[in-house]
Structure formats: C-alpha cells, structure tokens
Amino acid sequence: MKIKTKLYLLILLAVVAVSSGFSCKFITPSQKELLEPIELTWWGVTDEPENFYEVIGDYQAAHPNIKITYRKLRLEEFENELLEALAEDRGPDIFSIHNTWVNKYLSKIEPLPAKTTLAYQVTKTSLGIKQETLIEVRDVPAITAPQLKETFLDVVYNDVVRDNKIYGLPLSVDTLVLFYNRDLLNNAGIPLPPKTWNELQEQVKRLTFQNQNGDLIQSGAALGTAENIERSSDIVSLLMMQNGAEMITGRNVTFGVVPSTFPDQTYNPGPEAVRFYTDFANSSKEVYSWNKTFSNSIDAFAEGRVAMIFGYNYHIPILESKRQGKLNYGISNMPQIEGRTEVNFANYWVNTVSKKSAHINEAWDFIQFITTKKAETEKYLAKTLRPTALRTLIQDQTNNDALAVFAKQLLTAKSWYRGADAVAAENALNEMIESILAGNDLQESVNLAALKIQQTLQTL
C-alpha cells in the first residue's frame, strides 16, 4: 500500500512539474539566446508565396521562434532593388539568384558554414505522461561539396561550388525542350517531332509556307533571329556546346576558337553552330522559316503561326494562359546532333544567404531544410510541377507524364560561366546573331561576341 502511495505522489509531482514549466528552468543562457524570436526575409523572382507555405510551416514547427517571410519581386526590378538594399544594409537574409549570377554576387554571399547550431524544441514523455517541451541544442553538419556532387545534378556542383565552398542550393533545375503544334505536324503528315537537328531541318521544309509575295505565313521553327525568339542566347549556346565548342577555358572565352581536342582542326564548331542557327532566318537557304516580322516566338506559337519553338518548363503556364483552349501542343526532348554525346541546357535559380544577414546560421539551415530533405523538396515540386535538382527524385519524375521530358534531360544538362555580367553576355550573343543576319562576317561576329564576354571576366 505504501509503495502505491509513493508512486501516486511521484506521478502527481510530475504533473505539477509539467504544468509549472519545471523542465524549462534548465535552459542555459546560450539556449535562451538561440530561442530569441528571429525573422528571416527571403527575396525571389520565380515563385509565388503560396509555393512555400507548406515547407515553411514544416520548418517553423521545429523552430517556432523563427518566422520566414518570402517576397516576390518582378524580374525587371529584382537586381536593382536587391543591390540597393544590400548596399544600404536593409537587404534580405536569403535571396535567389540565377545560376549564371553566382560569381557576380560572390562578394555579397556568405558561403554555407561547416555546421549549423540551432535549438530544437523536443517533447519527451515519462511514466506515460506528456512532459513540457524540452530544449535541445544540436550541431548539425552541413552538406559538403563532395556530398553535394552526389546529391544534386552535376550542373549544380559546377555552378555553385567555388574553392570547395558552397554558395547556393537550388530547389529545381529547368532545361530547354521542344514545344510542337500537334495539328500543324498532323496536317503535314509528320507523325513525331524531330529527335535530331537533321530531322528538324527536313520537317521545317514541310511546315513552312510563303504567300505569292514570298512572305512567310507559317513557320516551321522559331530559329535564326535574336530579338523575337525567347531565350535565343540559350538556344545558340546549346547548339555550340552540342557541336563540341569549348565555351570557356579557364578564364578565357573560347567558343570562337577551334578546340585542341577537336579531331578536325579545320572545322570550328562554335561559328558553324551559329551559322546553322542563323540559316533559319536567311531567305536564301532551304531551311528559311523565320524573320523579324513574327511576334515573340511564344506568342507566335500560341497564335498557331509556328510549328515548333524552344522553351522551358516555366513557359508552360504562360502558354496555358495564352492558348485559350485552341492550341493543341506537345512537348518533346531537345533535338541532338546525331552521333554526338547528348547535351542539354540548364536554366535555374539558387538560394543563398547574404553576408550581411544577422542570422546566417538560421538562414542556411532553412535553405538546407527545403533543398536537401527529400520529403520537403517533394512537397515544393508537387506544388509547382517543376523538374528536380536532386538525383534521388529523377526516376520518380520520369514516371510523371507532366515532367518526364524534363527529367530525362537532367543528367545531361550543362551551363557555362558567362562572366561577371550574364546579361551583358546574353546581349553580346544576341548582337552576334543580328550582326550575321545584317551580312557581317561570321567569324568576326563570333570573335567580337567572345571579346565582349571576355571583358566581363576581367572585371572580377
């Protein structure tokens, strides 16, 4: 009887201790500091706030003292506002940058630390009774550069790692694909979209029509110009890379130079790829199918005026908003050069932490939480229907009809470093295209573009 009475008293004392917050009396000053309220601000371009509601909620459940606020800015204003805010010490803790901007922002980024130290609220039970939440301080090792290479796509490692330090982590990776008008291909008796560029050339001839005045009234493919083709600089870059051009060697832009590894030293793969591209806007060529009279390639495709265009996963919602149920289109893998190694083109954003953030530790912990934890990344990708950046999710996405085309290209996706100013590099490539169309020498136009991009490297 005495034993039962003592047990009852112990249970009663435990209940009193729980209700009075007894367990919290052992919080040390350092633990208390880690539990101070924190607000992390995050600026981005490509996502709506609702895309992150679930993953932010999951993170805050483990860290109730941390509030995360995401703000979407328009692409046109993003860089100016971000740079001004960082200069005036009112910038965000976390910001998203394009994969080609990493070197430009290197001095403004705090790389991922070796570990993150945070307090976790843990609920423990004793004698079957739920106790007050206890505080545990955990040192969690961060993902290392070698681990990143095994976890993420190769292109991510090449873009975000500098001197074995990690400067950003992505949630997804997009790749260029072929969009085709099913009705136009059906009407031309073409059962399947092209798998190679040679096939595309032949199909373009059957899909392009001119009126009696020689004006193009239907285009086989949106290729050849710069100003009215969405992401023209990416398309021509990919063609050069597929053709064997070494875009950059060390700190030298070399896409206009014959690579020493190329078997035929008389063939310059960079300029020849550019020639292939511009021929589609050259009225003297058999593949002539596009010119400056067309509207933007996305709009022309939505209007049914062009049979094939090239774009990204992020273009799908844009097309859906424009087609109004009239456009019957499909998506296919990017054409390749027959007999060559497959090469695809990556275009994506990475999340990073400002060097001026007062909460670097927490900011990087959150980024790792949403980008490296498979369950959290899956929630984001399910919400956005975007291609993954994680190797472990590629197979799942190849079984998803909406993502299979993109997923199959991820392991062969590449990018190239475009100097300290990626926008200037894009402008140089577009000016190169327009220069050739204006009748200027091919090699000279390519060399001038390379020189302009080279100059941005020297500003680092």
Describe the structure.
- With 460 residues, the chain is α+β, with helices and mostly antiparallel strands.
- The chain contains 18 helices and 19 strands.
- A five-stranded mixed sheet has the order 2-1-3-18-8.
- Strand 13 and strand 14 (252-253) form a beta hairpin.
- Helix 9 crosses helix 17, helix 13 (360-372) packs across helix 14 and helix 17 packs antiparallel against helix 18.
Give me a quick take on this structure.
The protein is of the alpha+beta class and 460 residues long. The protein has 18 helices and 19 strands.
Notable features of this structure?
disordered N terminus, 19 strands, 460 residues, alpha+beta, elongated, 5-stranded mixed β-sheet, 3-stranded mixed β-sheet, 18 helices
Q: Supply the helix-strand structural class.
A: alpha+beta
Beta-strand level of the residues, as a percent range?
15-25%
Note the main sheet.
5 strands, mixed
Total of helices: 18
Helix content: 25-40%
Given as residue ranges, the uncertain stretches (5+ residues, pLDDT < 50) are 1-25
Radius of gyration: 27 Å
Mean pLDDT: 90
Please list the strands of the largest sheet in the order they lie side by side. 2-1-3-18-8
Alpha-carbon distance between the two ends: 82 Å
- Using DSSP, what is the number of strands? 19
Shape descriptor reads elongated
